[in-house]
């Protein structure tokens, strides 16, 4: 099949209006000269192994296996029409298809820092924030009646110490890859591709240990995380808890999912002062193996006891977070490190928020954590070949 990223603009019949036309010079130049840039670049970038298809029923980066590195970015839209948003999503999707395949984006010039690195199993996952549908009570893009009911702002939760400059956003891109530079390059190239149309609001890098067993990687507290997570091959659980489907509305979200991010700092100085037994009582798991504690040892306020599906009306979430480290907090002299928590679900209010409301008040782990950022996004279903992520949102507009 012909890759739309390789096609000249005129043949794809792209029309650009409004802010996109005035501000999208980088996009226009890039696509116009993209053919020769790509011809050269394709020879330079080995496709190699480790590619994840971009065109699929569900967006990649949700149920696909987790890679070693994350660069997550939230953006604010500076353009002011639904057509601009539509064009941005088209541009990003076409670029993402090339990046997933280990090729350059057709912007001019591609930043180039991933040349020769291959695709490194890159996945790009796109999300739409609540402020796209309504900002300060205003229907800026004329999309208010399309807002999915589950895409509500996450309410203030117990223990929140949120920083506005790290929270929210009109749009997000989650880039995951087995090479940190490939993940960074993807965000860099996508940022350039929509220059003047959307501006980065905040971004977060994350990592996992390279060697990790299928059932849980150690987090920065030394405990195995993900042991009792939904498996990527478990279609029944994914359909029940993660994919928008069945009678869920709106229809344009069917096959998609809702993404919640929380930057959760670990207060490691106090934590490090606990004995292993005390730490195990807080988490409710053995530190060495990740196995549950014997019932008599597991306190009612342990993290896993309160988070477990059996104590939450059967509610589950798909967790896909990454550890982070961001230097030293000048106010305390302590490391600013922890978990960039990411989870996917069908309905954040009923799933993430309901669980976190209990955890924030009662969880023995809560006093060792500080939630410093929060965001929620609707991730539409995957793009069909030649189409783009979010396409169904604009039908009959
Ligand atoms: C830095 C913050 C956090 C740390 C260090 C942490 C750590 C852990 C660990 C070690 C486990 C046990 C292994 C596993 O089954 O994955 C676990 C389980 C779990 N956590 Fe967290 N967690 C954190 C935040 C959260 C948040 C914010 C939520 C949701 C609101 C959450 C929900 C869960 C759930 C649902 C389980 C599975 C419980 C079960 O069914 O056994 N966690 N977490």
Number of strands: 11
The amount of beta strand, in percent, is 15-25%
- Mean pLDDT over the full residue set: 87
Distance between the termini: 29 Å
Q: How would you classify the helix and strand content by structural class?
A: alpha+beta
Q: C-alpha Rg, in Å?
A: 21 Å
Q: List the uncertain runs.
A: 1-48
Structural features, described:
It is globular, with a radius of gyration of 21 Å. Strands 7, 8, 9, 10 and 11 form a five-stranded antiparallel β-sheet that branches. Strands 2-3-1-4 form a four-stranded antiparallel β-sheet. Helix 4 (82-100) runs antiparallel to helix 5. Helices cover 26% and strands 20% of the residues. It has ten helices and eleven strands. It is of the alpha+beta class and 397 residues long. The chain has helices at residues 9-12, 18-23, 25-44, 82-100, 180-193, 235-241, 268-272, 276-283, 303-307, 349-362, and strands at 69-77, 123-128, 171-177, 198-207, 217-218, 224-225, 257-266, 318-319, 322-329, 334-345, 369-379. Strand 9 and strand 10 form a beta hairpin. Protoporphyrin IX containing FE is lined by residues 216, 219, 221, 223-229, 262, 264, 266, 283, 285, 290, 303-304, 307-309, 317, 338-339, 341, 352, 355-356, 359, 369.
């Amino acid at each position: 099949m012909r890759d739309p990223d390789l096609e000249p603009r005129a043949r794809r019949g792209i029309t650009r209006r409004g802010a996109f036309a005035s501000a999208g010079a980088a996009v226009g130049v890039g696509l116009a000269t993209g053919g020769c840039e790509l011809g050269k670049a394709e020879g330079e970038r080995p496709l190699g192994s480790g590619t994840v298809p971009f065109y699929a029923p569900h967006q990649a980066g949700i149920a696909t296996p987790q890679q070693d590195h994350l660069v997550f970015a939230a953006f604010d839209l500076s353009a002011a029409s639904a057509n601009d948003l539509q064009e941005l999503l088209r541009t990003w999707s076409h670029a993402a298809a090339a990046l997933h395949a280990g090729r350059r984006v057709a912007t001019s010039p591609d930043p180039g820092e991933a040349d020769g690195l291959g695709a490194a199993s890159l996945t790009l996952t796109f999300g739409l924030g609540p402020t796209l549908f309504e900002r300060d009570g205003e229907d800026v893009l004329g999309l208010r009646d399309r807002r999915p009911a589950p895409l509500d702002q996450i309410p203030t939760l117990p223990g929140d110490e949120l920083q506005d400059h790290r929270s929210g956003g009109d749009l997000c891109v989650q880039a995951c890859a087995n090479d940190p530079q490939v993940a960074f390059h993807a965000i860099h190239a996508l940022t350039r591709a929509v220059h003047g149309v959307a501006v980065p609001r905040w971004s977060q890098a994350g990592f996992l240990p390279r060697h990790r067993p299928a059932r849980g990687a150690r987090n920065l507290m030394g405990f195995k995380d993900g042991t009792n997570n939904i498996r990527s091959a478990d279609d029944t659980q994914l359909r029940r808890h993660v994919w928008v489907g069945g009678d869920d509305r709106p229809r344009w979200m069917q096959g998609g999912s809702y993404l919640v991010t929380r930057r959760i700092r670990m207060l490691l100085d106090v934590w490090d002062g606990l004995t292993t037994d005390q730490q195990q009582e807080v988490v409710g798991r053995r530190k060495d193996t990740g196995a549950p504690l014997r019932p008599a040892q597991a306190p009612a306020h342990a993290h896993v006891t309160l988070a477990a599906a059996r104590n939450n009306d059967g509610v589950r979430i798909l967790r896909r977070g990454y550890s982070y480290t961001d230097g030293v907090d000048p106010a305390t002299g302590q490391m600013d490190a922890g978990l960039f928590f990411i989870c996917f679900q069908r309905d954040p209010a009923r799933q993430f928020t309901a669980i976190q409301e209990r955890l924030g008040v009662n969880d023995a782990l809560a006093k060792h954590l500080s939630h410093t950022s929060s965001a929620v996004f609707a991730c539409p279903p995957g793009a069909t070949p030649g189409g783009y992520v979010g396409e169904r949102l604009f039908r009959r507009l």
